[in-house]
User: Fold PROP1-like PPR domain-containing protein from Aegilops tauschii subsp. strangulata.
Amino acid sequence: VAAERVRAGTLSRDDAHHLFDDLFRQATPVPDRSLNGFLAALARATSSTACITDGPALALALFNRVCREEAGPQVAVPTVCTYNILMDCCCRARRPVLGLALFGCILRTGLKIEQITANTLLKCLCYAKRTDEAVNVLLHRMSELGCVPNAISYSIVLKGLCEDSMSQRALDLLQMMAKEGGGCSPDVVAYSTVIHGFFKEGETGKACNLFHEMMQQGVEPDVWTYNSVVDALCKARAMDKAELVLRQMVADGAQPNAVTYTCMINGYATSGRLKEAAKMFREMKSRGLIPNIFTCNSLMTCLCKHGRSKEAAEFFYSMTAKGHKPDIVSYRILLHGYATEGCFPDMIDVFNSMENNGIAADCHVFNILIDAYAKRGMMDEAMLISSKMQERRVNPDIVTYSSIIAGLSRLGRLTEAMEKFNQMIALGVQPDKVVYHALIRGFCIDGDLAKAKQLVSEMMNRGIPRPNISFFSSLIKSLCQEGRVMDAHDIFDLVIDMGERPDDILFNSLIDGYCLVRKMDKALKVLDVMESVGVEPDVITYNTLVNGYCRNGRIDDGLTLFREMPRKRIKPDTISYCVIMDGLFRSGRTVSGREMFHEMIESGTTVSISTYNIILGGLCRNNCADEAIALFQKLGSLNVKFSIAIVNTMINAMYRVGRREEAKELFAGISASGLVPNESTYGVMIMNLLKDGAVEDANNVFSSMDKSGIVPSSRLLNDIIRMLLEKGEIAKAGNYLSKVDGKSISLEASTTSLMLSLFSREGKYREDMKLLPAKYQFFDGFC
Assistant:
């Protein structure tokens, strides 16, 4: 009866002890069979049982009472079966050494050792990480104990070896087992155990070879074997191989289960292959298998990673409606998806839904919300979530503070950032590298280098490595791009003052900054410093300087530096030639540009798409359109792949020299060549058609652009409107004016000025003003 109560989950730990008290007091002895049945039921009671959380430990505790003779003669003397159960309890309770002690009791009492006793001994040895002894017992000592190893004996030792990351030894034992043959040949469990072991150790090749050997030996893999192979291949992102194994599994009659499909879906999801993951999910459902919450979470993760959080939410709510209870991980996935996409109202709706459904937000959830707002500079909202976090008595961790401090530092709110920094230390949360980097970056950008240096010293005193050169290079590059070169140079000096040796990346960033603000003399001084401290300038250094000269119109200086590169043992690369050729063409030196192109080819330097774009664009810009068209056609015949930018340039060039039909043919063949026309493509066609007076054709091209989903820019619409107005196409100009919404598209000053002049009292089109949209007839009042 007690055993039945254990299995039913209605017997508590206290009940078990009270039951033993009653047994000790009763007059009738308790037979060994009843005691063993009760202990066996306890051995199988796990944390999932309602009342007993650790049955094996309870069984050992109760037996200990028997050993202390509390029971007296009222409980039968333990038999070998009793000891077998108790040794198994020791393994289940993760107390294998006690199990070995119980085996010693068996030997001392002279009880006959059974096969199950020997197998449990092997299990205890393996659990105790004494696999060498387990192998010795299996191969040599079992016969001394009067037992013969069976398939279970071998499987226990094989599993022990694999769990100790000794799968190769397990394979040797498996092969020995196969060689000896007899009634103990390797079965599907033995093979599956070793295959799984190899996969765990990352030995995918050995695992797959053993899988194929298993089938060659006539051992049919079961579902567990196939799942092990599929899972490992999915984790290795070898999805094509995993798919083949799945199809082989079905062909061999081993029906895939929910675990199989969950592995496949998760594999495709983590590989970013949403289409295949969704297909596998549908196949799973078509087989009548019910996806578990892990399966659903995998698919939702994949959708969110592809920026399709709304679809993930629809899937989430549909699964909830079908009875799947989402866990906190499900909500985290959706929250993170919406946070990444900046869909904050949806994010907050999910957060509220989560709490309404009785799932309490943990620190991870709050961190997702805080970080999302902080990264978008919405610090007031982030601080509000932080306050809610404290109200719910959820303690902030290092991630919470990192997000808040980084967000405040980016906005220059450094006083508040330091307050949070001091608060986290007071609460016992130790700052890490991320926190210090955020503060140091903030103070450097703010110009307070003394405070930045103080923080560097402080982090080093805490045993945290100071920021490396890459950190400061990134900071200097960012400041240079904003035109704050002097501030960048101050940080450069700070790096040297800290005892760091600047590398080529840091020097190149500073040189580029001076080039951007047209201070080439200072850029050259940085180059001198670079060489004086033993940092060799590289091709990037020279490309940056040559580009700086070219952009500043100092092409001769750029050429001098370009010619200096080989003398410095620096071979010009593709970018070097592109920079200097672009400079030559822009300065009108077409012949020199051509010569440089030929030199590039002769030097064996790779010619890129950008190179062709510069050459063709340069020729067109310098009134050599026919030559550019001939080169373009020649390259096309050599199957050179062009970019859409080159095609746009050539269409415009063909119109400029009156080769209209060729231009139209080139435009019509864009899709066939594998390219996709962009707004510039349509703009070139429309403006050239309008110049030729082909207004209807231009309208048709505009309609094609609209149907392709390309939104015209404000600049293009203004160009079209002005062209139509100048040609007297007032009604058609009115159609385009109706697209001006004053938000994303607005009238430029030149367009407004033209309209004022055309529709004034003296204007030539005053009478046609009524053809304009009503909102533009205010010009009448102005005029």
